[in-house]
Write a structure and sequence with these properties.
about 70% helix; about 250 residues; 2 strands; single chain; mainly alpha
């Protein structure tokens, strides 16, 4: 479009210069108005028609890209919210009831099924963030995905050890659920290796889940604020209120 504009400008200048010269000399005025002027009008009409079509298509593509970026950003927040919900539910159901107990390593119930860590971000679709003041968000989202998967992995690892090894050792020693047993007694029943494995994996689960919940919430709010700055009149997901109202500022 740029080159067409230059060519038309040169052609128009040439024709107008010729017309001006002939008018000054008083020659062929009728011929000029009957032939050159219509040519100029046609040329200009073609130019502005092409320019309108080009601008229309360009603006359409820009708006489509804006919509695509907004959807990608909202989808990332939705995935963060899903991760956060998964870990928060686990925290409430499994960690909080035994958090302050010295026997938490044994009393924390193992999950019956493996937690899935199949949630991931499409980093390519979020590359538009690199052109903003919050360019570090792309890297932070990648880190957050890794943190979440690490938390899920340690939850699954502890559950396997508890179900397949600890419960078998307890049954062999006729340890009854709900009985009053000391930590030292449980250590003897489980053995050094299994006892320390359960203690360490339980501590790891609590640390991973607690810290990842905080970081997920932080990055989700940070991403939401960034998207609101970039798309002030669009709907952006918020962890606290779902879909925000349109910002008409």
């Amino acid at each position: 479009m740029k080159y067409i504009s230059i060519i038309i400008s040169i052609a128009t200048a040439f024709i107008l210069g010729t017309v001006a010269g002939w008018i000054l000399k008083g020659k062929h005025v009728d011929y000029l108005f009957s032939n050159y002027v219509p040519a100029i009008v046609t040329l200009l009409a073609a130019y502005f028609g092409a320019k309108f079509a080009f601008d229309f298509q360009s603006n359409k593509e820009k708006q489509e890209q804006i919509n695509k970026n907004r959807v990608s950003g909202n989808l990332a927040i939705f995935k963060l919210a899903t991760m956060l919900n998964t870990l928060t539910q686990y925290q409430r159901q499994f960690i909080d009831p035994v958090r302050a107990k010295p026997t938490a390593f044994l009393e924390m119930i193992p999950t019956l099924l493996h937690f899935k860590d199949d949630i991931s971000f499409n980093i390519d679709s979020l590359s538009f963030l690199l052109d903003t003041d919050d360019k570090n968000l792309v890297g932070e989202l990648s880190v957050e995905e890794a943190r979440y998967k690490a938390a899920i992995a340690v939850i699954n690892e502890r559950s396997i050890v508890h179900r397949q090894e600890a419960q078998l050792a307890l049954e062999t020693a006729n340890i009854m659920h709900g009985g009053d047993y000391t930590v030292e007694h449980m250590k003897k029943v489980l053995g050094e290796r299994l006892f320390h494995t359960l203690c360490n994996t339980t501590d790891d689960v609590i640390e991973h889940v607690d810290s990842t919940i905080l970081s997920l919430n932080s990055i989700a709010n940070k991403l939401s604020k960034s998207l609101k700055k970039q798309f002030p009149k669009e709907k952006i997901i918020s962890l606290s209120t779902g879909i925000d109202k349109e910002n008409t500022n």
